């Protein structure tokens, strides 16, 4: 029974063919495409307002050199939100619960920010490894610590997204199983458990959106240090 709780995190396959690529492609079909009409419908208007507000908030602390990343960061935000929200539906698979996928998104983007910093301002980029005013005996230790903290950033990005979504999915399945088992035995307790499950689902919707925002926000902060 314990192992069955983790079956929802297994990558789906059909006839031995992994369906991860299909799971990553389908969410884009659900996004409404802009039309050439003068007046759009409410859904496209709401989508455009959300993208504009998010882009303005994201690029607020960045200089003009960092504005080149606006399209990629906004697209990544929409992609992660769509994957996280679709994963809350029954009988669906959440690709962002896979650490390999999250690291595949985090490592190249983090590495790109580091390379940009090394290319444009190498002195300032290397200066982050040693805080100003450090006592001489502590210089070698602090350089090692700051280097480790720099290299662990993409791992923290991937693990944070994976752990939050995995914990939420497991908690929802545990409470749903408890409510189903208690229904014929103690209906009152089962109803209370179902109420907790509903509230937890609302919380997980918020977590799915917040974690996608935090992922992109931290990438923009890493970019801010290097542009």
UniProtKB/TrEMBL annotation:
Membrane-related topology note: Multi-pass membrane protein
GO MF entries: proton-transporting ATP synthase activity, rotational mechanism
Pfam families cross-referenced by the UniProt entry: ATP-synt_A
Subcellular location per the Swiss-Prot or TrEMBL entry: Mitochondrion inner membrane
PROSITE patterns, A to Z: ATPASE_A
Catalyses which reaction(s): H(+)(in) = H(+)(out)
Signal peptide: none
Record keywords: ATP synthesis, CF(0), Hydrogen ion transport, Ion transport, Membrane, Mitochondrion, Mitochondrion inner membrane, Transmembrane, Transmembrane helix, Transport
GO cellular component: mitochondrial inner membrane; proton-transporting ATP synthase complex
Ribonucleoprotein among keywords: no
Subunit structure: Component of the ATP synthase complex composed at least of ATP5F1A/subunit alpha, ATP5F1B/subunit beta, ATP5MC1/subunit c (homooctomer), MT-ATP6/subunit a, MT-ATP8/subunit 8, ATP5ME/subunit e, ATP5MF/subunit f, ATP5MG/subunit g, ATP5MK/subunit k, ATP5MJ/subunit j, ATP5F1C/subunit gamma, ATP5F1D/subunit delta, ATP5F1E/subunit epsilon, ATP5PF/subunit F6, ATP5PB/subunit b, ATP5PD/subunit d, ATP5PO/subunit OSCP.
Family: Belongs to the ATPase A chain family.
Annotated protein name in UniProt: ATP synthase subunit a
Organism: Argentina silus
Lineage, broadest ranks: Eukaryota, Metazoa, Chordata, Craniata, Vertebrata
